[in-house]
Amino acid sequence: MKFKKLFGKKVEVVNIGLETFKDDLEKQGQKVTNIEWTPPANLSEPTLNTLQKNKEVIETANKKALEIILNGKPFLVGLDIARNVIPGMKDDLLLHSGPPLTWNRMSGPMKGAMIGAMIYEGMAKDFKDAEKLGESGKIKFSPCHEHNTVGPMAGVVSASMPVFVLKNQEYGNFAYCTLNEGLGKVLRYGAYDPETITKLKWMEEILYPALKNAVQLLGKIDLKNMIAQALHMGDEVHNRNRAGTSLFYRTIAPAIVKTCKDPEITAKVLDFINGNDHFFLNLSMPAAKVTLDAARNIAGSSIVIAMTRNGTDFGLQLAGTSDSWFVGKALVPDALYFPGFSKEDANPDIGDSSITETVGLGGFAIAASPAIVQFVGGTANDAVNYTLTMYEITFGENNVYQIPYLNFRGTPTGIDVTKVVEKGILPFIDTGVAHKDPGIGQVGAGVLSAPMEPFIKAAEGLAKIFLKNKERSLL
User: Fold this and answer.
1) Domain span holding position 15
2) Cα(122)–Cα(217) distance, rounded to whole angstroms?
3) Residues 10, 16: Cα–Cα separation, whole Å
4) How many structural domains compose the chain?
5) In a shared domain, residues 31 and 50
6) C-alpha separations of 76 from 356, 441, 459 in Å
7) Closest by CA position to 184, among listed 163, 198, 174
8) In terms of DSSP H, where are the helices of 315-443?
9) What phi and psi values does residue 333 have, to the nearest 5 degrees?
10) Do both 61 and 13 map to the same domain?
């Protein structure tokens, strides 16, 4: 009798999972309610049990980590040459984006940037000479993140390069980043031609002194306040930095005019900043870095404090696992490509710029920047949904970085690795796309979700620490 009643009614469908099933049914005239759902990560039973047993400890540690992140006060306090200020920087050392990487595993754009840096430093005279030097073992390579530094795309930093110096005024730690080169054939996208090297030398000899003197006159610049304003003006300060760059320009321009003696140099420096909408990216990144680094080494915390890619691997670090790296394969973004290029030309995701997402900006704040979807693909509604989804995997919300469209709700902040693996929701990143071969440069911009593998490894790494501590207490 019950079956007769069931089949006497109109059947409605609830689809869980793949949207293609929903699409097929709708084409046949069926009404479908679609539920977005992804399965949890495939964690081992010991890992699941350990994390569950220590849930209260993790939550207490995460509260502490989030408090430190929210209290961070990133200020630009000066500029200097890399060898003078970056910890451990040496003349035979080249820093790169992402987790640790050897020469033989470097992608095309990473090798191109390394070759460009060797030519810039006078270590090599051309591509072949630099390639031979890279293979020789005479040059050392190390992640920017292991030296309090971040760099966009290839992220290469060499000893002679000028860098911004940032200080977290609340906790006293520092972070560093090179100056943004602008668009076109640039080092960060793997270019190494004479034009690229000439621009880098101009930045070292002309742009750097002008900015250094101007910042010295101002004393310090509050970047947290500037980022908060930029969010209200349509930036997410990763792929869109027009408002941030404009705010910085308004602050720095009068000081450059006052401190630069040569009117022609003054004009060229101001024109360079004004003509480079991405100039602020190299300030928003170290602002995120210096904020998150203060939350390192908080026992038991599952908060992500670094999330980065080197064009080969995707790596992350947790507040509760010291400086350990958890690494997986870097993915190729879904992107809008420049004319003449396609996904076949794209290199896997690359750059330290996902530090912005790690602190609750970039893709996590994309609802504040609907204009960015025209550049990376999608709709304004997509941007809002991306941000709303990120609240599912974060421990809290920012108290300063706010999204006007969401009634000034704070951006989702404090990526919690236990929530990522439990819910199967991965961090959303908007990004530039480099050509897979060295020397070509940017071929598009797009979006992607982080790979699950590093988050599974991070959850397992945190569980192992709890197990080790338990064993020690029994001895």
Assistant:
1) 2-35
2) 33
3) 20
4) 2
5) no
6) 16, 29, 34
7) 198
8) 355-358, 373-376, 380-390, 417-423
9) -65, 155
10) no
